[in-house]
Write a structure and sequence with these properties.
Layout lengths: L1 E6 H9 L3 H13 L5 H21 L5 E7 L6 E9 L5 E9 L5 E2 L5 E6 L2 E6 L1 H15 L11 E8 L16 H6 L2 E2 L4 H12 L4 H10 L6 H14 L7 H18 L4 E7 L5 H14 L4 E5 L2 H11 L7 E3 L11 E6 L24 H8 E8 L13 H10 L3 E7 L10 H10 L16 E4 L3 H13 L4 E5 L18 E3 L2 E3 L33 H4 L4 E8 L3 E4 L4 E4 L7 H4 L5 H13 L2 E9 L2 H8 L40
Length: 658
């Protein structure tokens, strides 16, 4: 999708007569069915006038022009692409990122500066980093830029036409030296240098043919990208498929082969509880399909898990590792295989809370996924739904698959990758919470899983820190019983979780990137070693598995000994969305604690805020087994882990706070 396509001579004329911004506005409305913000229209008017001057200086009048060109399966749009041929008769295209910035400030993150954007100071990508990412995305996913004997050669630059940098300007900082060399930045005095940059690549003109090639291009990841992502997964993954995982893996591969060449869509549903290796199987499947040259995508509803995968596999994986809501405008059957991990987090629609009511789509999110994929694979745990707007379930997916006439295959993962390979602990949790009846009514610790009840949150944290200091992955999490504040102006976190004299901050909220040193963003809390200094909420820990988890069990879910039933207390909950769920509240909070308690693969330690609840849980334990004394000599990683230790330096709180 693009809002403007034509030749440079027409663009120059439209801009000279002040028509181009209005044409973009009309095209925007025709596509999105609502008007762009006035500020965006003004930015088009100002920046495109500056771009017109550059084209006139360079005498580029026989060149293809694309404005506001949307990167497929994203909401990002490229400001300007100029197409033509160089002196050697090679097809070329140049991406130009246009900015109205006048100044910026330094920022701590590696690829980021601070600038006035959207009415306030924000941390944003350096323009050369941003445009370089756009170039890499097109080179990786658009057939015109990698397919055939003479693919279009792509270059990129940024034009900050109001920016007058100083000698020591943050935008020219040494840490950006390499990215500026690859993706030059032109400032307020850069009209003529930019004109020369474009002429060097587009001297011959003849842009209409190149423009047509770009517009006829199809979105399909290149073999080079597939090999890169596949090899990265395989080389960095400690996850090996065992027994039933490998059986299901091979069955899915067989289904994919038949589904890609048949007329009927294929849907695969893989069910499994915590610790059964659903994501292990999903990621290995992704690597193998890419290695085979399949156009495979991996989608989740978890920002934390997806961004962690981007961090581990690299930024190029963004083209194939996406979110459930990325497929609203995808081409029908445009993806060979769409792997949906954590499918219980599928929502009713892909509308976000920022979309105005009159503009919201009524199309089901799962229908968008089914339309986009020839083969859709759903990995699901029906008992991990923790929000009322998350509706993914086996029954729901079966129903939607039937509506599109898909053939459905279903598999169950049962083998546990918990300590001693036992599913006894998860079964006991389910029985104790009344989620489902199981044979594990009493916990006796006979399988070696390290479950403990501790007397205070401080004792809980000490025990978890000891595990982390011993080389294990370990975090403390809690029920959502305390407010979750925005960071302070200095980037430090508010100590929201207060229990007597014990005070700790929650992990950072999603979207908070202006954080003090040593505080990881929400998406990296489970993998950054510094995450141990914050309390994790269910939304950032769901989808991850650790060696040890400590859980603060709040008063939003307690056991009434007199009535012999679980009671949900909305007054004790700080989760505004779950509190509005009416009769679903108790089930959702039960699922929340089920998720928290089942994150540990070797051990789980719990502190109860409510003593009756603690008494009830203790009544379902053999006290002699409460501290099973598991040997910690064996540091071997459990096969199902999704947490890979990352590199940042650990910053501990002051000694008196520990």
């Amino acid at each position: 999708m693009r809002l403007y396509s034509g030749m440079s001579e027409d663009f120059i004329r439209d801009t000279t007569h002040n028509h181009v911004a209005e044409r973009l506005r009309e095209a925007f409305f025709a596509y999105y069915r609502y008007n762009p913000p006035p500020a965006e229209v003004n930015s088009w008017r100002n920046s495109l006038r500056a771009m017109k001057d550059v084209l006139e200086i360079a005498s580029l009048r026989d060149h293809g022009m694309l404005l506001e060109y949307q990167l497929p399966l994203t909401s990002r749009r490229i400001d300007c692409i100029v197409c033509g041929r160089d002196e050697g008769d090679t097809d070329q295209a140049v991406i130009v990122e246009l900015k109205q910035w006048e100044r910026c400030e330094p920022a701590e993150p590696e690829k980021v500066v601070r600038s006035w954007v959207g009415g306030r100071q924000r941390e944003v990508l350096h323009p050369s980093v941003q445009v370089g990412q756009y170039r890499q995305y097109l080179e990786d996913t658009h057939t015109a830029f990698y397919e055939g004997p003479r693919p279009i050669r792509l270059s990129s630059c940024s034009y900050l036409h109001n920016y007058l940098p100083e000698a020591t300007d943050p935008i020219l900082a040494p840490k950006f030296r390499e990215v500026l060399r690859a993706n030059p930045l032109f400032d307020v005095d850069g009209a003529e240098p930019l004109a020369n940059y474009l002429k060097d690549r587009l001297a011959q003109g003849k842009g209409r043919v190149v423009l047509q090639r770009v517009e006829a291009s199809r979105f399909r990841p290149s073999r080079k990208l597939m090999d890169h992502v596949s090899e990265t997964i395989r080389s960095r993954s400690p996850w090996i498929l065992l027994d039933e995982q490998l059986v299901v893996f091979e069955r899915i591969r067989s289904t994919v082969k038949s589904g890609l060449f048949g007329r009927q869509k294929q849907v695969v549903i893989v069910r499994g509880g915590p610790g059964t290796g659903k994501s292990v199987l999903a990621i290995n499947l992704m690597a193998e399909l890419l290695r085979e040259g399949r156009n495979a995508h991996y989608a989740t509803g978890s920002r934390a898990f997806t961004e962690t995968l981007w961090e581990i596999i690299g930024s190029r994986s963004r083209a194939t590792f996406r979110y459930f809501n990325s497929y609203g405008r995808a081409e029908f059957n445009g993806v060979d295989v769409l792997i949906c991990d954590e499918s219980h987090r599928i929502r009713e629609t892909s509308n976000s809370r920022f979309v105005k009511k009159r503009l919201r789509s009524t199309k089901a999110q799962v229908r968008e996924i089914l339309d986009a994929a020839k083969v859709a694979v759903f990995f699901i745990d029906d008992r991990q739904i923790v929000r009322p707007n998350e509706i993914g379930s086996t029954t729901y997916i079966q129903k939607r698959a039937a509506e599109v006439g898909a053939e459905v295959s279903e598999y169950e993962l049962e083998v546990q990758f918990r300590c001693a390979g036992s599913d006894g602990f998860v079964n006991w949790i389910d029985n104790t919470l009344g989620v489902r009846r199981t044979a594990n009514v009493i916990w006796d610790g006979s399988d070696g899983f390290d479950f403990r009840i501790v007397d205070s949150p401080r004792e809980l944290e000490v025990a978890i820190r000891e595990r982390a200091d011993g080389g294990f992955t370990a975090r403390v999490a809690a029920g959502f019983c305390w407010p979750w504040s925005e960071p302070k102006p200095d980037g430090t976190l508010v100590e929201d979780v207060v229990i007597g004299d014990y005070r700790r901050p929650w992990d950072a909220k999603p979207g908070n990137w202006r954080l003090a040193p040593g505080i990881p963003p929400a998406s990296l809390w489970a993998t950054d070693p510094n995450g141990i200094n914050q309390i994790g909420c269910v939304y950032n820990i769901q989808g991850f598995e650790l060696d040890y988890v400590g859980v603060i069990w709040g008063k939003d879910l307690r056991y009434d000994l007199d009535r012999q039933l679980w009671v949900g207390d909305k007054k004790q909950s700080a989760d505004s969305v779950v509190k509005r769920s009416k009769e679903q509240f108790v089930d959702l909070v039960k699922n929340t604690y089920r998720v928290l308690l089942s994150r540990g693969m070797r051990g789980c330690y719990v502190h109860f805020m409510d003593k009756d609840t603690e008494r009830f849980v203790r009544s379902r334990m053999e006290t002699s087994r409460e501290h099973p004394g598991v040997s910690q000599a064996d540091g071997t990683r459990v096969a199902a882990h999704k947490v890979i230790p990352s590199r940042p330096r650990i910053v501990y709180p002051p000694h008196e706070e520990r």
